[in-house]
Amino acid sequence: MASDSYCNGCIYKGLVNGNAPCCNYIFMEDKRRPCPPGEGCTVKVTNRDAQRRTAEERKRKKLELAKEQRAKRRLARVHTVVCPICGKSFETDRVQARYCSKACAKVAHKAQLRLHEKKRREMDGPSSDPSGHLLQGKALGVR
């Protein structure tokens, strides 16, 4: 090793034959060094840096594991539903899913609006005011 003092504190610093310093980067990372050992080293990692790196890796692995577990739970909830508009069967993980597409949902919504309008007209009964002002509140001066 070119400079033994520069490598002090580096996690890759090791000893060969009990006392000769060497760089163990290739053994620990399982790849070639990108730089020469010693003063020109760009991969020097101190214990503090290593602890931060391992903490970040643990956090990233934990998030990845949580994401995988959510995906597995979601796949476990998948069930088959038949669309009431077109009759097509489709798989979904959402309990409230009823329609296979936005187009079918739109058709159902318009049908529901027509039904509500029809019921409202039936409840109002025949109007004695042909212009419809009573229904709109204009006869009472309400805006």
Q: Kindly state the percentage of residues in helix.
A: 40-55%
Biggest β-sheet description: 2 strands, antiparallel
Query: Unreliable stretches, pLDDT < 50, 5 or more residues?
Result: none
Largest sheet: spatial strand order: 1-2
Shape annotation:
rod-shaped
Question: Strand tally, please?
Answer: 4
Protein architecture, described:
The chain is of the alpha+beta class. Among the domains are: 13-45, no CATH class; 79-125, no CATH class. It contains 4 helices and 4 strands; from the N terminus they run ββααββαα. It has helices at 25-29, 47-76, 102-124, 133-136; strands at 13-16, 20-23, 79-82, 89-92. The chain has a two-stranded antiparallel sheet with strand order 1-2. The protein is rod-shaped, with a radius of gyration of 36 Å. The model has no long low-confidence stretch (mean pLDDT 80).
Concise summary:
With 143 residues, this protein is an alpha+beta fold.
Main attributes of the structure:
143 residues, alpha+beta, two-stranded antiparallel ribbon, two-stranded antiparallel sheet, 4 strands
Helix and strand topology:
Elements: E1 13-16, E2 20-23, H1 25-29, H2 47-76, E3 79-82, E4 89-92, H3 102-124, H4 133-136
Antiparallel strand pairs: 1-2, 3-4
